[in-house]
Amino acid sequence: QIFNQHNAEAPDLEQAFHRMAQMEPNLDHDVSWFLLPSYWAKIVVALISFLCFANSYDGDFVFDDSEAIINNKDLRAETPLGDLWYHDFWGSKLSSNTSHKSYRPLTVLTFRMNYLFAGGFYPVGFHVINIILHCTISVLMVDVFSILLGGLQFSNKGRRLNLAPKSSLLAALLFAVHPVHTECVAGIVGRADLLCALFFLLSFLGYCKAFRENKEGHTFSVIWVLVSVVLGAIAMLCKEQGITILGLNAVFDALVINKINLVELIRKLLYKDKSLENAGLLRKGLLFRVTLLMCGGAAILYIRWRIMGTGPPAFTEVDNPASFADSLFVRAINYNYYYSLNAWLLLCPWWLCFDWSMGCIPLIKSVSDWRIIALAALWFCLIGLICQALCSEDSHKRRILTLGLGFLIIPFLPASNLFFRVGFVVAERVIYLPSIGYCILFTYGFSLLSKQAKKKKILAVAVFGLLLINVTRCALRSSQWRSEEQLFRSALSVCPLNAKVHYNVGKNLADKGNQSAAIKYYREAVRLNPKYVHAMNNLGNILKERNELHEAEELLSLAVQIQPDFAAAWMNLGIVQNSLRRFEEAEQSYWTAIKHRKKYPDCYYNLGRLYADLNRHIDALNAWRNATVLKPEHSLAWNNMIILLDNTGNLAQAEAVGREALELIPNDHSLMFSLANVLGKSQKYKESEALFLKAIKANPNAASYHGNLAVLYHRWGNLDLAKKHYEVSLKLDPMAPGTKENYSLLRRKLEQLQKKGG
């Protein structure tokens, strides 16, 4: 019956199918599930995977999207395309000491294309691409699981046969609706994992295409093996995990193509069994293909190493506290606990969080910690599965369990802390590929239960219910990823001890102007992590704005004491010291900030304000000029230069600076206003009037704009227009300084003129 779903026309193919099917047990015999033609199975998987994440299509840029997309200069047209190959995922130079060394140029290239086609930072296009990618991957999983669960078998016409249509459909559905994938799909930065998975699967399917079966045995195409290596390289250029497909291809070759029994092979090697000569490994080309994969992988890693440099990634203790522990025992036990948490997220993806660092998972420091049970459970299950995978007499069972464990463990290795320190504790996005192995093991376990169960339909209904629950969970979690407020608040119940969660909730509230609520969350973040310098800096900023200067100074001083190279905290400390009129200390703080961040236009701007307060006019002008050189669109620095030159009587110089500024920022109404004032004093009334009117058109509710235009008309002798704009200014701001007096003078003058006229 299964054969009829594929081809009902060729009797020779039918005989070949039955011959191959008899070689080993068929997983589908024991699986109580739907049987659909291949194209229908793929349509169902695509639709359900779309249903899970469709509501994320109009979400905002959230969490890491700001740094990877909005603040990433590599997305803009002015950045040469070639720079993408020398920058990390966040737009920093790979050679920089602060780089995380995450080398994903092809992912950044897709972001850049999104940005260019949309004409700006519009998140809808970014989200739609992510959803399409996940649907595509889920459809490909139908073919991948049909090979992993049913084996690689071809008809005599070279067509690959799906020997496990029911099992592959179930596994693909499990993958498509797994809630742990929400971060990759609903979070735009997850594009890296999606692209990596796409080319990862294409590499595997390409490797499978290298084989054909005929009467004499297997033949293979070197071209397709090389294509597989190239696709693996592309996967790695999307995200680092992609390189692991080469190892998995080798495992698949050994187990499925060559049907090697590892335990038996090791025994023969140990005892130098002469039957090894008849193993046929060289004849079937396994060693040659593995050599190609190894050489390809080594070449890819070498090129990446040359581009990336030899320096390790720059991470801090709060990113991954276990990796900074002095004791090898503490490091090992906590790494294993992290593995058990990842396994639990695959088994029960109900408690999901955008960030698991900063105290969310306290370190295990002794064997008396009850969480040791999780480690024991993990290794009990793993050892049991490994023993069955290696020692079972059932070759079909050995193959499926080994492939399941391989796809579960090997793609996870780059995130395991075994080879290098990673910048996270637990990250849901890194489980996207390992979940393939989970789906294999789940489906195989379901087939074993179905084989033993008397009421198979009840078991099938239970699995169907699980799929429905996962679809619902995906939809709910996707809605939480639509905005930062929902995302951050959703984490409070999952990781209440995570200082970063409280920090992000506070930052979100501060951005919306709710400073009182933001202070509460910032204080909690500092309480949970007394060394959280970013929380101290932001809290200090809010307290500074609320004129609580002494507490702000304490927090910012502590922040720079903990992290002496924290440039932003040094600058904010300087602002507070300036407000407290401790000018020498403020100047020193500003220069310390500039020392740690050479290109810091905002700090030069604040330094200029300090010098202006001290009447060091030349120093102030130089500082503001530095700010505009580093950031030509720094409107405040340009404005302050114009105003200072105006106030000191240097009208010609003020006019020149104003015109230079407007050439760079032609639509800035504050610059128009400042230059209009200068031109009015220089008696260039017509040009001044034009700029005032342009500024008022851009910002019609600015009382000072109307007031100063009225002064211009007053000087110019156009008294009626002066009266009109004085009245508009006073209507907008009845307490506008000077306007009331000027308006009174104008009215007296108009009354005198009327008397003379009368």
- Stretches with pLDDT under 50, minimum 5 residues: 1-23
The total count of strands amounts to 4
* Biggest sheet, spatial arrangement of strands: 1-2
- Average pLDDT, all residues: 88
C-alpha geometry: elongated
Tell me the fraction of residues in β-strands, as a range.
under 5%
Q: What is the oligomeric state here?
A: single chain
Distance between the termini: 112 Å
The helical percent reads: 55-70%
Most strands sheet: 2 strands, antiparallel
Instruction: Give the number of helices.
Output: 34
Based on CA atoms alone, the radius of gyration comes out at: 34 Å
Briefly note the structural class of the backbone. Answer: mainly alpha
Main location: endoplasmic reticulum
TPR repeats: 499-532, 533-566, 601-634, 703-736
InterPro entries: O-mannosyl-transferase_TMTC, TMTC_DUF1736, TPR-like_helical_dom_sf, TPR_rpt
EC number: 2.4.1.109
